[in-house]
Amino acid sequence: MLGVQELIDISGAAIIAMLGWFARQLHDNNQKLRDDLQTLQVTLPTDYVRRDEYGKTMERIEAIVAKIFDKLDTKADK
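-> structure tokens emitted (78 positions)
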């Protein structure tokens, strides 16, 4: 039969083991998030277009489309 002190010791060891496991899980997940963030920081400039670059490109496309519409309007008038 286990004494009171032995039960307290076993319970304490079990609690410490669970806390250690939980801390390890937090550490591993934190490290995975850091790795994912690092990967995102590396790939973000190559995978996505910056907003100002997109705006400049859209302005050029709009100018070209406006020229096309002007040409179509002059053709339709003739």
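The mean pLDDT is 91.
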